[in-house]
Design brief:
Blueprint lengths: L6 E3 L2 E3 L3 E3 L23 E7 L12 E4 L2 E4 L8 H8 L9 E6 L4 H12 L5 E5 L10 H4 L2 H14 L4 E5 L6 H11 L3 E4 L3 E3 L2 E2 L4 E2 L6 E4 L4 H15 L6 E4 L5 H10 L3 E4 L2 H4 L3 H15 L16
Parallel strand pairs: 3-4, 3-16, 4-7, 7-8, 8-9, 9-10, 10-15, 15-16
Antiparallel strand pairs: 1-2, 5-6, 6-14, 11-14, 12-13
Helix pairs in contact: 2-4, 4-5, 5-6, 6-7, 7-9
Length: 309
Amino acid sequence: MNDPLATTFCGLNFSSPVVLLSGCVGFGEEYTRVEGFSNADAGAVVLKGTYLEARPGNPPHRVWESPSGMLNAIGLQNPGAATVIRDILPRLDFDETRFFANVCGSTIEEYAAVTARFDDSPIDAMEINISCPNVDHGGVEFGNDPGVSAKVVAACRKATSKPIIAKLSPNQTDIATNARACIEAGADALAVINTVMGMAIDITTRRPVLGNNRGGLSGPAIRPIALLKVHQVYQEAGPLGIPIIGQGGICSAHDAIEFLLAGASAIGLGTALFYDPLVVTKVNAGIRDYLREHGTESVGDLIGTVELR
C-alpha cells in the first residue's frame, strides 16, 4: 500500500510533505546527533544560506525570543560555496532525503555563480534566497521588487537545469505579483514566506537588542500572515501547476494541514525544531491521522481545497 504522505515536488519524489527549512538545520547535520531524529523523516532538507565566498555573519546578539516567536539576525554566516560542496556535501546521505541548496548573493551575478557551483554537485534543487531581511547587500533588496526578483531568477535559470525555488518575502506590497514575475522568469516552485521584519529594544540601554538593529521574526506569531500569503500566491501559481512550500510558524499537524488546504504542496518546519527536534514525526503522524479520518487517499488531495465563504 502506498504511503499517503508520499508526494512529488518539481518531479522529485518526497517521502513526506515536510521540508526542513534553511537556517534551522545547519548544513543537514545539526539535529542528527539528537536521539530519535532522522533526516529521512522529511521529504527534503534545505541547507544553510550560501554565498560564493565565506561570510562571518552579523555581530551579537543574533537571536532574541519574543512572544510566540523569535527574532534572528544571523546574517547568513557560511563558509562559501566551494567549501560546502567540497567538505560538507560528501558527508550527507542523499539516500535518506532530498537536499536543496539555499543560494544567496550580493549581486545578480553572484546568485548565478553560486547556482552554477551547485549545479555541478549532488544537490537536488536550488532555493533562491531573495528574501532574507538580515543582510545589507542581497536578500530583500532583490526580493521586494518583482522586476529585480525576475532578473535574479532568470540569471539562475541559465546557470542550472535543476529545479529552482524562489523564496519570497512577506515584506512587500504585492507578493502575488512577485510570484508571477518569478514564475515567468523560470522558477519551478515558490517558498512562501520568509521571516517578517521586526525589532526589539533594551529599555535600560535604549539600544536595539540585536547587533544588526533589526531581524527576522519567525514562529507562531507569523503563522496567520504566512497562511494568507500562501493562499494569495496559490491563486497565481496553482493554475500553472507551480508548487509552493508553505512556511511560517508551523508547529503541528493542524498547522500543516491548514497550509495544505490554503494551497501549499509541501510545508516547511523551522522555528518549531528549536524547542522540539522530533516535531517532524509528530506532524507526519498527525497528517496521516487526518487523512484516514477524512477518507482522503493522499496528501496531494488536500492541496488548495479550502472552501472560501
